[in-house]
Amino acid sequence: MEFECRDLCKVYSVQGRPVSTLEDVSFTVMRQEFVGIVGPSGCGKTTLLKIIAGLVKPSSGRITFGETDTGGQPHNAMVFQEHALLPWLTVLDNVAFGLEMQGMKTDERHERAASFIEQIGLADFADSYPYQLSGGMCQRAAIARAFVADPYMLLMDEPFSSLDAQTKLVLQEELLRIWGEHKKTVIYVTHDIEEAVLLSDRVLVMTGRPGSIRREIPVALPRPRTLLANESREVKEIKWRIWKMLESEVRQSLELKR
Ligand SMILES: Nc1ncnc2c1ncn2[C@@H]1O[C@H](COP(=O)(O)OP(=O)(O)OP(=O)(O)O)[C@@H](O)[C@H]1O
Ligand SMILES: [Mg+2]
Questions:
Q1: 255: pLDDT strictly greater than 80
Q2: What mean pLDDT is predicted for residues 82-109?
Q3: Which residues pair with 189 in a beta bridge?
Q4: 47 Cα to the center of ligand 1, angstroms
Q5: Chain mean position to CA 166
Q6: Count H helices, E strands: the chain?
Q7: In angstroms, what is the span from residue 46 Cα to ligand 2's centroid?
Q8: Residue 230 reports pLDDT greater than 70
Q9: Cα 63 from Cα 187, distance rounded (Å)
Q10: Could you state, in order of their start, the residue ranges of all structural domains in the chain?
Q11: The domain 3-74+152-253: what is its CATH number?
Q12: E-assigned strands of 127-250?
């Protein structure tokens, strides 16, 4: 087992009043597993990732990394929806940034970063600045940066949601490929049910306000996967099952109650 959270709760204080955001969230993630999380807007997905990343403190509950609770917080790389790169650094320096934090020497970190930049197809843009890149290229660089630092877990919060549909398809396939090569443990939050099913070994369906994990859906598709998997009957069935679990809450949030 790579990671476990038990009975995680988070209560924010909003203008002095307690607002419960997560309630009794429990799940485990196995080593090298790719776990997707889907759920309606506001159910606490980003809050959950931030807690796992150590950026937000839970109000109660327990998080364990590895077999025993050592109390330590390992390095978990987080990839956000946008604004993922530091605008004043080149692509190479952005990707190498995490390695600098780990104390790696300049030559070594540039060499390692360059290899990941090449793997993700940005070799010609290593010396460009983020403003010179498209949104898709920025997210590619963010992915390279997350993988290069060899994190304990990769926490991805809707990394492709701001991209156009075709760029998203290309990056999904690239992520499948780079993940297949490095087999990091990933927790991947998305609104896109099809994306969650395509990428994940297991999809956690989160609902409610405060949010909790309502179901865990295994995705027993063979790997390596490509976008062709989206056309399979299995993916279509799982997508439909997940949508049926979310539909009423999504409708309620749009105040279209029937
Ligand atoms: N720092 C904060 N202080 C107070 N309330 C917060 C804070 N961060 C988030 N919240 C509230 O917690 C709830 C869950 O927010 P969160 O961003 O985790 O949801 P989400 O599932 O990621 O939503 P989305 O799908 O829209 O990204 C929301 O109601 C939000 O307003
Ligand atoms: Mg969010």
A1: no
A2: 89
A3: 37, 157
A4: 6
A5: 20
A6: 7, 9
A7: 4
A8: yes
A9: 14
A10: 3-74+152-253
A11: 3.40.50.300
A12: 153-157, 185-189, 202-207, 212-218
Task: Specify the DSSP class assigned to residue 211.
Answer: B
Give distance in angstroms: CA of 30 to centre of ligand 1: 26
Query: Which residue shows structure tokens 């790696």?
Result: 104
Q: Among residues of the chain, what percentage have pLDDT more than 70?
A: 97
Beta strands in the chain (DSSP E): 3-14, 17-29, 34-38, 60-65, 76-79, 153-157, 185-189, 202-207, 212-218
pTM check: above 0.85: yes
pLDDT digits over 5-21, tens only? 999 999 999 999 999 99
Report which bound ligand comes closest to the CA of 39: 1
Characterize the bridge pairing of strands 212-218 and 202-207: antiparallel
pLDDT band at 196 (very low <50, low <70, confident <90, very high): very high
Nearest to 207 by CA among 45, 51, 63: 45
Among 14, 15, 21, 189, name the best residue to mutate to test ligand 1's pocket (greatest count of ligand atoms within 8 A of Cβ): 21
pLDDT at 67 over 80: no
- In this prediction, residue 95 has a pLDDT band, given cuts at 50, 70 and 90, of very high
Q: Which ligand is nearest to the CA of 10?
A: 1
Copy the structure tokens of residue 165. 């549909």
pLDDT over 60 at 257, yes or no = no
**Coil/strand/helix, residue 229:** helix
Give yes or no for residue 108 having a pLDDT over 80.
yes
- Residues whose CB is less than 8 angstroms from the CB of residue 111 and which lie 6 or more positions away in sequence, other chains included: none
